[in-house]
Write a structure and sequence with these properties.
The complex is a heterodimer of chains A (239) and B (248).
Chain A lengths: L2 H9 L4 E3 L14 H17 L4 E6 L6 H12 L5 E4 L11 H10 L3 E3 L15 H10 L5 E3 L6 H8 L5 E4 L9 H9 L4 E2 L9 H10 L4 H16 L7
Parallel strand pairs in A: 1-2, 2-3, 3-4, 4-5, 5-6, 6-7
Helix pairs in contact in A: 2-3, 3-4, 5-6, 6-7
Chain B lengths: L2 E7 L17 H10 L4 E6 L18 E6 L6 H5 L6 E4 L11 H13 L2 E5 L14 H14 L5 E4 L3 H6 L9 E4 L9 H6 L7 E2 L9 H10 L4 H15 L5
The chains are: A alpha/beta (239), B alpha/beta (248).
Chain lengths: 239, 248
């Protein structure tokens, strides 16, 4: 785990959800199953060393099919992780995601799905909001988070607006004026989560975006903290 | 005191940018955002010029705004000479290709030198994955070094660079006639103190990219960044005030 980010989180008393997408800063878009296990072991180790601060999300690839489900059971059911992370190896509406979605429902944890709407496509299996909508509608009882508000936030937010089981996080995209307000207006504040994308992005800029948004202090507190506590079961309730 | 060196205006901005609010760019709105963020002076220019528009508004600016003129590579030198009350010019060489070694650019730099105009090289308005560039920022920075070296009396501001680009192309940022701003310094964690390891704090300017970005975000990150108070003051206003010739 990035030492600078850990120091920041401790100084700011900022609990965080974390997944490891590869060792030593290398992010593995198409990991082997063994690489996923090693990544998840690092997160489990961090959780043990930083209880109350680090809350793990289990990184799996749908390409590993039933082994991915076994890994989720090891990390979430047995290891105390709070969610599942899917990245860019397979589009999330692929049928290989279905057993993972069903396991997420069974364990009561959310799936955090990376999503980018780029002008130029560079990752053929990268999920777009439409893929998230497809999966979310198939499993309405499943909780999903569309990461990065899909980069082009207005289009991303519009796409998932009618899926009440999909939240968005504010990480991984620039702090564009109006983005937070638009998410709150279209989705309701309960479906908007603060995300930093640290250590790749500067956490201060990402917090600054929420602090700058023209929203009520109650809504700001929900985005920065309350919604995540509720979604991850950190508020004493079930995840 | 805070001076914002990289903000934009222009009522025709909405068609240029993706996903921004329709009223973005209105000078009154830019000023309102600045004041609400604690920003005292804001350097603005018409951002639509980055995409081929060459007309700059000429009505008097509101108190609190400092005017630069945006120009494209096909600018009219005679018309530019008549620009009223500008402190500098902005060019957008990632969105419009510029020949930095062309006779036209040489004439522009002579005029800028005669008038005491700052030359602001604007690399980014939005994430290139949202608003593509014709020329990558890194390539522009690389080609700028020869230009700024050949014009030591001219004052250049390179705006919108990110940390990785500055780290990969440090040469122009080490020159005494080049400043940069923090508007697109969004990566990685602790990016501002990391920038100060490469660029002397006397040549780093506060820039918000307002009204595309939240200006208050930029203030927040400077206030809370782990840097010295002396560096913070330089970045927030002292460097800009000196560069603008003591604008109050």
């Amino acid at each position: 785990m990035d030492a600078e980010f850990l120091a920041f989180a401790e100084q700011w008393r900022m609990p965080f959800a974390v997944s490891c997408l590869g060792p030593n800063g290398r992010m593995l878009a198409y990991p082997t199953f063994e690489e996923c296990v090693r990544c998840n072991d690092m997160v489990l180790d961090l959780m043990a060393k930083r209880p109350g601060l680090a809350y793990g999300f289990c990184y799996v690839s749908q390409a590993h099919e039933h082994k991915a489900v076994e890994e989720i059971r090891r990390c979430v059911r047995d290891g105390g992780m709070r969610g599942i992370k899917l990245w860019v190896a397979v589009k999330c509406d692929d049928e290989r995601t279905f057993p993972i979605a069903e396991e997420a429902i069974s364990l009561g944890v959310p799936i955090l799905q990376h999503s980018y709407l780029r002008v130029e496509e560079v990752l053929p299996e990268e999920s777009k909001p439409e893929h998230i909508v497809s999966l979310a509608r198939r499993y309405p009882e499943m909780k999903m988070i569309m990461a990065h508000m899909a980069l082009r936030w207005r289009e991303g937010i519009d796409a998932v607006a009618d899926c009440p089981n999909v939240s968005v996080d504010t990480s991984g995209c620039d702090p564009e004026l109006g983005s937070v307000e638009y998410a709150v207006e279209r989705l309701g504040v309960e479906r908007v989560l603060f995300g930093s994308d640290a250590p790749g992005r500067d956490v201060l800029c990402q917090i600054g975006r929420i602090m700058a948004a023209d929203i009520s202090e109650t809504d700001r507190a929900k985005i920065l903290c309350g919604n995540a506590e509720k979604l991850l079961g950190l508020d004493g309730g079930a995840a | 005191m805070i001076i914002d060196f990289y903000a934009h205006c222009g009522s025709n901005a909405a068609w240029v940018l993706k996903q921004v609010q329709h009223d973005v760019g209105d000078a009154n709105e830019v000023l309102r955002l600045a004041k609400a963020s604690g920003i005292d002076r804001t350097v603005v220019a018409e951002m639509a010029c980055a995409f081929g528009e060459t007309e700059n508004a000429r009505e008097p600016l509101l108190d609190g705004l400092v005017r630069f003129a945006s120009i494209g590579p096909a600018f009219d030198l005679g018309r530019l000479e008549q620009e009223p009350a500008i402190k500098g010019i902005r060019i957008y060489p990632t969105y419009q290709e510029w020949g930095f070694d062309s006779p036209q650019t040489a004439k522009l730099l002579i005029l800028a030198g005669d008038r005491g105009w700052i030359v602001q090289v604007c690399l980014r308005l939005q994430d290139p994955r949202v608003l593509p560039q014709a020329v990558a920022s890194g390539a522009v920075i690389g080609s700028l070094d020869k230009l700024v070296e050949s014009r030591p009396s001219a004052q250049f501001v390179i705006s919108g660079a990110n940390y990785a680009e500055i780290k990969a192309n440090p040469a122009p940022f080490a020159r005494g006639n080049v400043w940069t701003d923090i508007s697109h310094l969004q990566h990685p964690i602790n990016s501002l103190p990391k920038l100060l390891d490469i660029v002397d704090s006397s040549r780093v300017l506060f820039g918000s990219n307002s009204p595309i970005f939240y200006p208050q975000m930029a203030v927040f990150r400077v206030i809370h960044s782990p840097i010295t108070d002396e560096d913070r003051e330089r970045i927030l206003w002292k460097n800009a005030q000196q560069l603008l010739g003591g604008v109050q």
